Structures are given as C-alpha cells and as structure tokens.
Amino acid sequence: MPRIFVAACVAWDRVRAQGIYLAVCLCLTLCVLGDAPAADSPETDEVGQRIGLLLDSGMDALNHDRYPEARDCFEEGLGLARQRGDEWSIAAFLSDLGLVEQSLGQYSQALEHHEQALGIRRRIHDEWGQAADLSNLGNLYQALDRYPEALSHLQQALAINRRLDALGEAGKVLTNLGIVLEKLDRYQDALDHYDQALPLLREAGDLDSEANTLTNIGVVYLRLGRYPQALTLHRQALAIHRRLGSRAAEANDLDNIGIVETRIDDIPGAMSHFQQALTIRHEIGDRRGEALSFHHLGILNQIQGRYDVALEQLGRARTIFHSIGKPSGESATLAMMGLVFQLSCRYQDALKHYRAALAIHRKLRSLRGEGQTLTNIGAVKFDLGLIQEARDHLQQALAIQRRIDDRDTAAASLNNLGNIDQHQGRHQDALSRFKEALAIHREMGDRAGEGTSLANIGNLYRAMDRNRQAQGYLEQALAIDREVGDRAAEASDRLNLGLVHWIEGDSEEALAHFNQGLTLTATLDTPELSWRLWQAVSNVYAARNQNRAAIAAGKLAVNLLQEMRATNRKLDQRMQEGLLTSRRFVYRDTAERLIQQGRYAEAQQILEMLREVELYDYLLVKDPASDPRRTRASLNPVETDWSQAVDQTTADLRAVEAKLIPLKRILEQVRSDTEQVAINVLTKQHQALESDLRSALDALPARLALITPTEQARINAQMAEIHGGQAHRLASLTSRSGRPTALLQTLILRDHLRLLLTTPSGWSTAVSTLDASTLDKLISALVQALRDPGTDPKPPAKAVYERILGPLEATLSEQGIQTLMSQLDGRLRYLPLAALHDGQGWLAERLAVVRDTTISTPPPPATDRRERRIAGLGTSRPHGAFAALPAVEEELESIVRRQDDPNDQGLLPGTVHLNEAFTEKALRQAAAGDYAIVHIASHFNLQPGNELESALLLGTGELLSMSELRRSALDLTHVDLFTLSACETALGGPDADGIEIEGLADIIQRQGAHGVIASLWSVADTSTAWLMQRFYALRQEQGLDKAEALRRAQMELIDTSGKLVHAAVRKRVPLGLRPSEDGLTSRQADYRHPYYWAPFILMGDWL
Questions:
Q1: Closest by CA position to 60, among listed 286, 245, 280, 204
Q2: What is the Cα–Cα distance from 547 to 1024, expressed in whole angstroms?
Q3: For the CHAT domain, which residue ranges apply (predicted)?
Q4: How do residues 1081-1090 score in pLDDT, each as one tens digit?
Q5: Contacts of 990 by beta carbon, 8 Å cutoff, 6+ apart
C-alpha cells in the first residue's frame, strides 16, 4: 500500500506577533496632555487629571493583557475627552480602544475606531498620530487577510516615520511589512524587511518589538525548513516576552515553539507548549489565540490517530475564526479538517472541506495555501482511482511550490506524484521523485516526512521484486514512525513489511506484522488500512489452507469496504466507481473461497452485494432506501462469537484511551500524584488489552478449526436457510413455468473463471482455467463477430461456450434445464448467451435465456391476453448523428392495431406515437394509461460509466438521458413488459463492465415494470419488425411466457433463413434492399446470423 503523503502543514497557521503601537500611543497622549490649554477652573483640572489617570491605567492593563479593564478605562476617558472637546485625547482613546478590540478579535469595531482616530489626526495635522494610526490599520488589515490594503497603510506609515526621523517606529513598521510579505509567500522580501528592522529596534532599546521581529524571522525559517534556527529565535523571543510580562506574546511564542517541535516530531514537547499557550489565551480572553491553540491541538490529535478528538478541536477553531472574520485561519482549519476526513476515508467530506479552503486561499491570493490544498485534493483523487485528475492537481501544486520555494509541501507533492508514477508502471520516475522528496525531508529534519518517503521507496522496490531492498527501507520507516508515535503510519509499515515477508515465503512473520497492524488500527478510524490488513490476513490463511479463517477475514474486509462506501455515499458517480474499481477483487476473492468450501449461499450473498453496488454506483440518482452499501456480509455463529469477543476487547481499549488521553495532556510539572497513579494504572490496562487483542487475532484459525464436520454441515444449512433464497425461487419459477429453470453466476478472477450453477435441487460449480486477459480477448472477438453480419461467429461463439457453459453441460442436461437465468460478471454482460454455439447449434435452439436482475417485482395483474393493450412509440427519421431507422414504422404497424381504424391489421390493440408525436409527454401518457406493454422503437445509446451520457432519442430529435428517465417517475406498475428494440450498447474501454445494460433494466423495473427487453445493438432492418411481431404473436396466440416466446421467435428467424420475414412484409421493402426471385434481397441477407436475432435480451420477470 503506497503511503499517500498529505500536506498536513497546510493547516498550520503560524503565529506572528503583530507589533502593535502601544508605546507610541502612550507617548503621544502624554505629549498632548502636556501641551493642552491651561485649565480655567479646578473642575477642568480634575477632568484633565482623570483623563491622564485613565490613560495610564488603561495602557498598563492593555500591556498586561487585562483587556476588559483596559476597555473600561479607555471608554470612560473617551467620554470625558468628548465633553471637553479635546480632539487630541479623543483620537488617542479611539486608537487605544481599537487596539483592545483588535486584541480581542473584534475587528469590525477596531477598524471603525482606528479610522475615526486617523480622520481626527489628519484634521489637526498630527503626523506622529497619523503614522501610529496608519500602522495600526495596516496591522488590522493584515489580521483580516486584506493584504493590499495592509501594504498600502504600512508603506504610508513608514514614509511618515522616516520623514520624522522616528527610527524605532520605522523599525516596527518594517517588521509588520515583513509579516504581510511573508503572508504573500515573499519570504526573501520578508527577511530583508526584518533585517532592516532589527538594528533600528535595538538602537531604540525596544525589547518588545525586537522580540516580535525575532519571532517573525523564526516563522520564515520554519517556512523554509530551517528548524534549528527557528527554534532558537522563538526561544529568544519567549525569554524577552516573559521578562517584559507580555502574556499574549508569551502565548504566541509557546505556540511557535510547539509548531517547530511538531515539525521535528517532538510530540510531547509540542503538546506541552500548545496547552500552556491555550491556558494563557483563555485567561486573557484572546479569542483568536484560542482558535489557534485548538487548531494546533487538533493537528496533534490527528497525528496520533485520534480523529474524533481532532475534529472536535478543529471545529471549535473554525467556529471562532469564522465569528471573528479571520478567513486565513478558517481556510487553514478547513484544510486540516479535510485531511482528517481523508485519513478516515470520508472522501466526500474531505473534498468538501478542501474545496472550501481552496476558494478562500485563492481569494486571499495565498499561493502557499493554494498549493498545499491542491496537493491534498490530488491525494484524494488518487485514493478514488481518478489518476489523471490526481496528476493534474499535483502538477499544478508542485509548480506553485517550486515558484515560492515551499519545500516541505513540494516534498508531499513529489511523494504523491511518485505514487502515481508507480501505479502507472513508471518505476524509475517514481524512484526519482521519492528520492528527491526524501532528500528534502532529511535536509529539513522532518522525521515524519522522511518515514513516508522511505516507506514509498520500500513499496516501490517491492513492486519491482527487489524485496531485500524493500525490507530495508520499510524497516527504516517503521523505526521512525514508532519513534514519532504515528500509529497509522506504523500500521501501514506493518502491512507492507508483512507483504514483503509473504512474498519471500515467510507466512508466519507476515501474519505477525498483519495482526500487529490490526491491533494498532483497532482504535483508529482507518477503514482503508484496516480492510487491506484483513485482506492480507485472508490471503495468508488461504495460502496455508486455513480456509475458514481466510473466509472470516475476507468477510471482515468486505464489510469494511461496505462501511467505507456508505460513508462516501454523496460522492459523484465517477468517484463512486473509482472507489469500487480497485477494490472489486476483495468481494470476488471472498466469494471464490466460499464457493471452494461449498458454502454457496454465503457466496451468493457476496456476489449479490457486489452486483448491487456496481449497479448503484452507475446510477446518478440514488434511492437511499435501497442503498446496497448498507448490506453487510453475514457471519456464521462461530465467526460471530469470535468477532464479538474482538469487538469487546476493542471497545475496552477505546474506553481506557478515553480516560488515559486527557490525563496525559496534563503537563507533568502540574500533575497531581493521584493523576500520575491513574496514568500508570491505565497504561498497564491498555498494554494488557492490546496483548489480549493480539492473542484473539492470532487465535482465529484455531477457534474455527474446532468446528467438526457435522457442526460445519449444520452451520452451512443454517446459512443456506438464511441466504439460500435462490434455490427456493428457482423451484417456484420451475413450478409456475412448467420448465426446469437454473441460474448461472460467473465470477471473473485473476487466473480463472468461476462458474456457479443453482438449480431447484442445489448447486454445482466449475472452473474455466483462463486468465482475465484471455477471457476479455475471447469476449471482444465474439462481440465483434456477432455485430458484423459478414463474419462467421461460430468459432468465437464455440470458444466462449466451452469456457462458460461447457463445464456445466452435463449438469444442465441431467436436470433437463429449459430456462437459463444468468447473472454475468464484468464484460461478459456484453454477450447474448443465446448466441453461444456448442458445435451443433446455438444455445437459443436448446434453452430460453434470461438476464436476472436485482429487482423483484410482484406478479403482473391477471388479465386476459386478448385484452392486453400496447403503446407503441418510435422514430424512423434521422436526427443529427442518429441514422434513420426505416423499418420502425413497419415495426409499429405490425404489432399495434389502432382501435380507431377498423382496417388496421396490427396484432395488439393500442396507440402509436411516431416521429414528432413521440415526445416525453407522450411517454408519460403511455405510462399513465392502462397499457400492459410499452414498446419503444428508437435509438437508445447506452454508454459505459455514465447514465448521463446514455440517452433515448425522442421523435422530436431531443434526447432523454437515463438519468432523466429515472427522475421522470413513470408509474409502470401495470406494465408487464417494457421493450426497447433499438438500443445500441457501446463496448467502452478496458474498464467497462456492461453494468449500464442492467442499469437500464433497473431504472425501468424500479418504476414498476415487470419485464424488460432491450437490444445490445441496433438492427436497422425489417427483421427486427418481424421478430417483434412474432414474439408478441406467440405470446398472444399460444400463451407462451416471455422467455419461451422470444426463443421461438428467434428460432423461426434462424430456421427459415429469413424467408418468412419477406413474406410477412412483402408489401413494404426496406430502403436499399431489392427483392430477389427467392424472396431474399439482392444483398443476400442471411437472417440465420446472430446479428439479426441475438441482440434482444430479456431481463427481469420472464413469465
């Protein structure tokens, strides 16, 4: 399993000191008071003294982060200054109130007060005050992520300070300009401004601003991966801020130290510093800071695999960021939540959050955020099997990251692009990317990233059959992941090391790694990793002939896939299909193992689950009530007992962790003795439970091996009673039709084709020894021959018959089967089984063939066959790319007798809607009428992979897509048969599986119709009209069921070589055909060729 490297750092919102002008405001206000007009009365002197006292007290409170106290002082002072009409003091108090509000994240109020203060100072020509307010507004706009406005205000402030020769203040502005430039990913420009600021601030003796600048230089070094230098600078800033008593700045420094520690995988240190920062911020009421702390704590819990806790903390951070109008913080948190959802395999939620974050990043023009989010979206697309889309996103991301020198995230993109190269077989390209990423991670000291790249190189070497090298790299990765405490990564390493040992023939060591991985994932929300581990366990047990254990493990893998897919039920159709495509083998392998052990009913449940899920994914419009992804593979009683014991141990582990984790968050230096004792006790309990879980996992084969043959037979009978409905259904159909009926199910596996035949008396199974690639070539050759009336189809038809029905021929003959229902797998769905040839004749000459569907409809209402009415709809004219169907008019006239025309010679009473009269409204009216048959003779193009692109041509030239047909909500409950006589099914690419054919039947049956006839290819010839007329005539006149009537109509066409076709329609000659003396055409059309009679397949109810 490749290690997908997601740009976790996308979520880090590095804390930066703001460099707010507190000292400047204090100095200016004192100066103003000193220059104020002389007092006229003792009362005036008292007011002035009170204003000065409020200003001093407010600034002291603000400098020590006592924000409510500062606000009270400034609001009272502002009121007194307004009473006196003292504009200097009014401006000072407005500016100071803005600083309090900005510190509290109340940005709209802060913006209003700063702008009011600036307006007054411009009016009274106070340049010093203007510089202060411009600086404060610049900082505020930066906090609001309005970077162009921030740059403009700060540059104006810098110009004034330089003109006034205020070098210390110029240093502060340079620092804040550096912050904005760093936000814009202009790292070198930011460093240049910080380098200019530091000597100015040191000369002015401004320790607070010097510490702020050191902090911001550390942030840039962190961006550039220079972790030791960053850590040194943040610790220097922390020492200064603690000496100055600035608690808000101290919290920022603690946060920044924690961020660096996270990058170098010092998780305990990071947790300690983040908790200290959160405590301070909560005490001083710093909401923005609290959001940052929750955000960072959420990341640490994600790293440790505690996804539910991570999402809770990240959700709190996002709520605060949104409420205070901080889009950059919100976007970072959205991206981090997307990562947690992705790691939990909740892909739809991941994409939703990533896309929301990407929109904000682009609005803010944050190239770093855009690149990181594109990397993460690319990783999700890879998980979903959308390889080209994944590559496109990752290449866009890497281009951005190289342009702005975002090296850590560039390494993530390189790892993911390497995985794509490996997936596509470009091993050398993959190795080059992985090694480049590894070099970056090592240079930056990123141990977690190093582990990821090592694991990817190890997996690549395994794919290249260089197992010794693979093992070396994977063991290095495992050591690092254990060191940094990344349990999910460690479990992934265990999986991959186990695969290497298994390939090398050491199944015991492989199993130990797999079970250790399952122990690690037991309390993690990692279904993708967990199902892969269970499938690996299943393969080992199967290779060791421990078949019962292999089956149990396979069922658990299937159920995890079902759970994962249900969680992602809102993904679009392409993504749903991608999620299934690379995982079908799990269902197939498990079903095959059940069949090998004679556990046929359980196998049929798995096969039915796979077929229903394939069909459900094809359809765009879903019916939640019938969502098959809610289905789970049933465990037998012994499997259930074992599984429940494992689940109970897992639940106990979760309960212990729920108590242990909060206690471990308490800093060691403040833990009580009682808390430490509790940690020690819970740790021992956790270790004991993990040991119990590993023992339970190891004991699976032994537990199932205790089942005696008698007990196994009883269990099989019990499961057959629960899931063996097929045999009962076949018995009922045999009784109702009077003809022995069987069900054929096929299962395409890597190296063979499994055949399962169910009859009323039980099951038979056989194997065709050919690989999937060879089978696909046989299918393609036969389909091409069937669709070309100039080609002899018998050789390929015989070759396919020998593989599909040859092994079961004796059973079919012994039981006298006359009707064969089928559930076909993969591209076999493109074949009409009636056209298989046994060397003596076509299958249609021996058996009626029906395509079984997932929908069970009640028996149609009992009506006299002579009273059945038909609605005929179609178009004969060309429309755009759709060719004319000249025989359609003839087809409808031969089967529909218009009741308003006494001379009409049609077979069944009804109505016709031809050409322009065939509209969607006409179709609705036909559905709403009392017609037992709806017959449509028009192009219906079925396209693999997308029901939007599969469409019915209406007589007006408009297209009605399969999706629109589903949404049309036709009421077909009274319709016994819905016929589409001119469907055309495209074969599609190598991944096409023919599910669109059953998808069409599913749509129609879900709207109430009992049976469906559709064609696999369109035959623009009179033979279709004749075949359809004979089919309905045999139903009407001889009372045959649908399946037998269709077979006999096909046989008449074969037996007469088409002469009856021309005799029946001699009054009308198809365009381009001229009658010849023998009744055939000059083109000598041979209607015995399956091209003319084989495309019509009957699905659903066939009685």
A1: 245
A2: 51
A3: 795-1101
A4: 434 468 899 9
A5: 776
Could you identify the residue written with the tokens 């990407």?
Answer: 358
Radius of gyration of the chain (CA): 38
Intervals of the chain under pLDDT 50: 3-43, 571-575, 577-578, 620-622, 624-625, 628, 866, 1062, 1065-1084
Q: Which residue has the tokens 């009640």?
A: 858
In sign, the C-alpha dihedral spanning 515, 520, 522, 528 is: negative
Longest dimension (CA), the chain: 133
Q: In this predicted structure, what is the pLDDT of residue 27?
A: 22
Q: Are 696 and 642 in contact (CB under 8 A)?
A: yes
CB proximity list for 424: less than 8 A, separation 6 or greater: 387
Q: How many CB atoms lie within 10 A of CB 325?
A: 16
Query: What gap in Å lies between CA 199 and CA 167, rounded to an integer?
Result: 10
Give the Cα separation of 639 and 597 in Å (integer). Answer: 15
pLDDT value of position 713: 86
pLDDT of residue 1070: 36
Question: Strand order of the sheet with strand 870-874?
Answer: 762-768, 753-759, 741-748, 819-823, 848-851, 1096-1100, 1011-1015, 977-980, 933-937, 870-874, 908-914, 896-898
How far is 953 from 949, CA to CA, in rounded Å? 12
Q: Which residues partner with 753 through β-bridges?
A: 748, 768
Cα–Cα dist 832/555, whole Å? 32
Distance, CA of 523 to CA of 521 (rounded, Å): 5
What pLDDT, on the 0 to 100 scale, is given for residue 191? 92
340-374: buried (b, 16+ CB within 10 Å) or exposed (e) per residue? Answer: bbbbbbbbbbbbbbbebbbebbeebebbbbbbbbb
Is the CATH code 3.40.50 the one for domain 724-851?
no
What pLDDT score does 981 carry? 94
Is the separation of the CB atoms in 505 and 487 below 8 Å?
no
CA distance 843 to 725: 27
Please state whether the predicted TM-score (pTM) of the whole model is above 0.85. no
**What is the reported pLDDT for 535?**
97
What distance in Å separates the CA atoms of residue 883 and residue 596, rounded to the nearest whole number?
49
* Domains 724-851 and 865-1100 fall in the same CATH topology: no
CA distance 788 to 942: 19
Nearest-10 crossing angle of helices 584-596, 547-567: 150
Give the pLDDT score at 662: 78
**Distances in whole angstroms, Cα of residue 329 to Cα of each of 309, 655, 853, 938:** 19, 33, 51, 57
- Count the Cβ atoms, other than its own, within 10 Å of residue 493: 31
> Quick one: the chain helix, strand, coil %, rounded to 5?
65, 10, 25
In degrees, rounded to 5, the angle at the alpha carbon of residue 1024 between the alpha carbons of residues 1027 and 914 is 115
Token pair for residue 574? 């392409």
| Residue-range domain boundaries for the chain | 724-851, 865-1100
Q: Quick: pLDDT tens for 995-1046.
A: 888 888 988 998 999 999 999 998 867 889 999 999 999 999 999 999 999 9
Distance, CA of 254 to CA of 278 (rounded, Å): 9
Q: Alpha helix (H) ranges present in 805-949?
A: 809-814, 888-895, 920-928
Indicate the fold that domain 865-1100 takes in CATH.
Answer: Rossmann fold (3.40.50)
Give the sign of the dihedral formed by CA 375, CA 380, CA 383, CA 385: negative
Number of residues assigned to the chain: 1103
Report the distance separating Cα 718 and Cα 640, nearest Å: 14
Q: d(Cα 563, Cα 338) in Å, to the nearest integer? A: 19
What pairs with residue 879 in β-bridges? 882
How far apart (Å, rounded) are the C-alpha atoms in residues 1027 and 1033? 10
Give the rounded distance of the alpha carbon of 896 from its chain centre. 49
User: What pLDDT does 1060 receive?
Assistant: 56
pLDDT of residue 393: 96
